[in-house]
Design brief:
It contains eleven helices and ten strands. The protein is α/β, with parallel strands linked by helices. The chain has one domain (50-350). The strands form three sheets. The protein has a five-stranded parallel beta sheet, with helices on both faces. Strands 7-6-8 form a three-stranded antiparallel beta sheet. A hairpin with a 5-residue loop joins β6 and β7. α6 (218-235) packs across α7 (259-280). The longest helix is centred in the C-terminal third of the chain and has 22 residues, at 259-280. The chain starts with 25 loop residues before the first helix and ends in a 19-residue tail after the last helix.
């Protein structure tokens, strides 16, 4: 009589998911702990210490990053400063203490590349200047100064100061943080150069024969961003990059789409560009500020009543995860530093955001 046949032992199946940490699964990483239990969100590619010089540029949301780096005891690499006795509110009104140099908001990868090519003399800035009453405006920083420039010489001299500061902020930094904000852009048809705002909104005049909309597609944005990073590495081979995407929705869109759909499309392209570069470059990392503010966990709670501006609490959440990823405790502010930043705190929810001017052109309730 034959012994009973034993059932065949099923082979142990090993899949790529078996040994993954909790952060890889939505249930354990997101659903169970909720926003309060969210942790291990960012694993930086490279170490950053409070002693490292960090330059910051980008959309209006990028202004939060620089200010919070300074408050936490990090070296925000400011390369263009106002006269020593200038009050903080007046300095901000003239574009100081927003980014590492007075470029104003840089919303697109192509605009960043344009500024860098001017700074490192790959191209020369166009000669275009806009009249404003009895003064002049810089088409590439139309809202930088509260009052128009008195002369072309003054305008070009101050732009040269900014270009020198931009060079210094690249060559002297260890980390360059750039926040991508928009894909919609306006360019000069003949010259091919880009404006930070549509001509005729903040200053100048719109001429459909001269100015055209040139929204960025994914490949265009990726190529420009990669070219910008390569240019900076060519002058500072040790420079490392952190890319973020602004969670702030578009103020308006000239695309013909609903602004909600246009916002989603723009952020999708920028997020894909940042992710692609972070995945393919050793010198580039991505920090998920966009996801922290716009994810289902946040539930819209970090937007102000206008459903656009990010609240101070939302910014705090973003920066807490940033510093947690670095494994660095935020340095407590000294009383003098705390007093010095009160003016900046009052401006926390009123950033210098050039794009907001587009709201003035919309229909009235």
């Amino acid at each position: 009589m034959r012994p009973p046949r034993r059932p065949a032992r099923r082979p142990v199946r090993v899949t790529p998911y078996d040994a993954l940490p909790e952060r890889a699964f939505w249930r354990s990483a997101v659903a169970q702990g909720g926003l309060a239990g969210l942790s291990d969100l960012w694993q930086p590619k490279f170490a950053i210490t409070p002693k490292d010089r960090i330059s910051t540029y980008g959309s209006c949301f990028a202004q939060h990053i620089g200010q919070n780096l300074r408050r936490a005891g990090f070296r925000w690499h400011i390369c263009e400063t106002p006269p020593p006795t200038t009050p903080p509110d007046l300095a901000r009104a003239h574009g100081y203490d927003l980014f590492s140099a007075r470029t104003g908001n840089i919303y697109t990868p192509t605009l960043l590349l344009q500024w860098l090519e001017w700074a490192f003399e790959k191209r020369r800035p166009p000669q275009e200047i806009w009249a404003d009453g009895n003064g002049l405006r810089d088409p590439f920083r139309p809202k930088l100064e509260p009052e128009p420039f008195e002369s072309e010489k003054e305008l070009e001299k101050l732009r040269a100061v900014t270009l020198a500061a931009l060079r210094k902020s690249v060559t002297g930094a260890k980390v360059f943080i750039f926040t991508l904000g928009l894909t919609e852009r306006w360019v000069h048809t003949g010259g091919g150069y880009e404006y930070p705002l549509c001509p005729g909104t903040a200053a100048g005049y719109f001429d459909p024969a001269v100015h055209r909309a040139a929204p960025l597609e994914f490949n265009e944005a990726l190529h420009a961003m990669r070219k910008a990073l390569d240019l900076m590495r060519s002058v500072n081979p040790e420079l490392q990059f952190i890319l973020t995407v602004s969670p702030v929705p578009l103020t308006a869109t000239a695309s013909g789409a609903h602004v909600l759909s246009a916002t989603a499309g723009a952020k999708a392209i920028l997020r894909a560009v940042a992710g692609q570069l972070a995945e393919t470059r050793r010198d580039t990392d991505y920090f998920p500020s966009y996801e922290l503010i716009t994810s289902p966990l946040a539930g819209g709670r970090f937007f102000a009543d206008n459903q656009r501006d990010v609240t101070a609490k939302g910014v705090d959440i973003v920066m807490q995860h940033f510093f947690a990823g670095l494994g660095v405790e935020q340095v407590a502010e000294r009383p003098r530093a705390r007093r010095a930043r009160k003016a900046a705190d009052r401006a926390q929810e009123d950033l210098v955001c050039d794009e907001k001017i587009l709201d003035a052109f919309g229909p009235r309730a």
